[in-house]
Amino acid sequence: MSVDRVYSDDRVNMISFTGSAPVGWSIKAKAAKKFVTLELGGNAAVIVDKSADIERSVAKCVTGSFAYSGQVCISVQRIFVHNDLFDEWTERFVEHREAEIW
To answer: Which domain holds residue 30?
Structure first.
């Protein structure tokens, strides 16, 4: 079976791809009527605003950073924390990580 036939084959309900953006978008264009999941990588950043719920944002960032040992293209890679929250937020992040609460 040609690789291109997968896009029109009714037995295929979903296509998942991990790799470069150009190839991923090409697949999505060819598989327009199918569910497509693209993991194209990047440099996933989180911004923790002054109004953030510290406990919730810490828990989500620990999970997003360390789940699957960070071996996911969309893992949290950078975290920008508002200066007013930085000390408390960072302390809680370390506590969560060390306690493996996540």
So the answer is: 3-39
Average of per-residue pLDDT across 59-74 = 84
Q: Which of 16, 96, 88, 2 lies closest to 50, judged by CA?
A: 88
In this structure, the answer to whether residues 77 and 60 fall within a common structural domain is yes
CA-CA distance, 7 to 98, in Å (whole number)? 45
Annotated catalytic, 95?
Answer: no
Examine the domain organization and report whether 57 and 94 are in the same domain.
yes
Q: What is residue 41's predicted lDDT score, i.e. its pLDDT? A: 67
Place of tokens 């000390």: 87
pTM listed for this prediction? 0.61
In the set 39, 88, 91, 95, the catalytic residue is: 39
User: Is 39 considered catalytic here?
Assistant: yes
